[in-house]
Amino acid sequence: ARQAGKQIIKVYEKDDYVQHYIDEMTIEMELIKGLKAGELSVVYQPKVGCQDGMVHFEALVRWHSAALGNVSPETFIKIAETSLLIEDITGFVFDRVCRDMMEQPELFAGRRVAVNVSPVLFRQDYIKQLLQVLATYGLRPEQFEFEITEHTLMQEPLLGIQTVDYLKTKGFRVLIDDFGVSYSSLNYLKMFEIDGIKIDRSFISQLDKDNGLKEYEIVKLIVSLAKKLNLEVTAEGVETEAQYRVMEQLGCDEIQGYFFSRPLPLNDLQQALDALVYQHAALRQLELATT
Ligand code: C2E
Ligand code: MG
Ligand code: MG
Ligand code: MG
């Protein structure tokens, strides 16, 4: 079973159509078991402020299944979203993050942690539960952001608006994740009172390619529009210095991606933060020298 599982997951990352061959029920059942057995964990990816080098984090869930090996969240979140399981996962991630923040106050001082949520099942009574968890740990909503993907917001637009408004009145920051890839991206800016957007990796990855001119123009427009609307802009999936430079010059506020750091377990974060201070300072110095 282990070998078969590994094979499935390897192919799955590459070819979405293979999804049809996968028994989603198996994954769902293993996920239920895995949640109970403590197979899930949380890693943190830094987001680096272009100007000040300030680092915040995004929390990302990981699942190492005894039966299936490592399963990507791209795979199991989709499945979890079709049932109440997604609430258990959000609950697990949120609780884990709160505990980490409480146990390592120096590490997280002045830093926000972003949690990915699916508003489909993200109703007010559930948010109330999260607020209770926060209170138990002595943390404040201002220390958190919620990243909500476009497609989930639009599944139920009215619920989406209510959810975003409710989160905002409670003091949480709200970002639209993977911005630019759905059919009505601009509509979201009108409909939802959000704090910022994260431009999808598919645009960023083309910025330093010869055939990436379209992406460049689109990203330029998105950034300038977002600025006019007073939204913070984060670029996701920045992998090269050239991509960083383009985004920085366009006025992007925050950069996230392998160029600065991969998602890391809690124990590796302090070391990564120390290295990021130097990396950011060196980049800024080069900029000053060339302008
Ligand atoms: P996302 O929220 O857009 O997260 C960004 C994804 O891109 C992460 O994949 C991250 O590891 C990856 N990434 C970051 N920088 C780079 C880069 O420079 N290059 C490349 N190629 N990739 C990069 P991951 O962790 O596999 O998560 C995939 C998606 O699964 C997330 O996309 C998010 O939508 C969802 N997800 C992850 N954790 C959670 C969670 O706790 N709850 C919910 N509801 N969804 C989650
Ligand atoms: Mg995200
Ligand atoms: Mg994203
Ligand atoms: Mg993405």
From TrEMBL:
Highest taxon of the lineage: Bacteria
Residue ranges annotated for the EAL domain, each copy included: 24-277
Signal peptide as annotated in the record: none
Protein name: Diguanylate cyclase
